[in-house]
Amino acid sequence: MTWLERSPRIKLLSETDKRAPYPLSWEEQFRLLNELPTHLAKMALFKTNTGCREAEVCNLRWEWEQWIPELNTSVFVVPRENVKNREPRVVIINRMARAVIEQMRGIHPEYVFTYKGHPIRKMNGPAWRKARQRAGVPQVRVHDLKHTFGRRLRAAGVSFEDRQDLLGHKSGRITTHYSQAELGNLICAANRVCGDESRKSPALVILKRKTAQAPQKQLGGLSMKSVVGATGFEPATT
Q1: Where do the domains of the chain lie, and which CATH numbers do they carry?
Q2: Is the whole model's pTM more than 0.85, yes or no?
Q3: Cα(88)–Cα(175) distance, integer angstroms
Q4: Nearest to 46 by CA among 11, 79, 92
Q5: CA 154 to chain centre
Q6: pLDDT tens for residues 17-63?
């Protein structure tokens, strides 16, 4: 074989079929959560209130939870090897995500979200696809829950920089340590997407479903200076 005189033209795949993000409305969220099995509904509710990726939710482990005594709450610090952009991911927990976490506490010794004693490897399975059909939102992907969180933050007037931090996007800023003022901004921003009184029903429906209750685990103290990030509110009761 001889060398080619010129490189052959390679036809690239069209990007016109790429699906656009589809943030959920409050009504669509209500319908979807009601159709999902309880274990997936709680993962979806957590994802919609934290902006975590599917893999981060499925792999979320209790050992990643770090207690902040000064703020009387905790955060999850996802190691870089479990994050898409290979940077440590600080998951800020708002009131609704806190309620989900407290319901899952003590059910499994290692993983936060499990089904019949085993970790859930992915959310996008037959149960998810059937539920979204019944809910009348067949176009909704698991990743759209992250888009929903981002869109609601933007609608609430949260700054671009704070949205980047809350969504775990890679940026040029050093986000491994926050000042108290910065933490306060992130906490307020994360809580803005919990909805007003009229919008709590989707979450309450999920949280009131029967689930195994376990005593809360007392976490060890961790100084604010040694943690990647933190939230600033007392855990909500469920």
Answers
A1: 26-216 (1.10.443.10)
A2: no
A3: 9
A4: 92
A5: 16
A6: 577 889 999 999 999 999 999 999 999 999 999 999 999 999 999 99
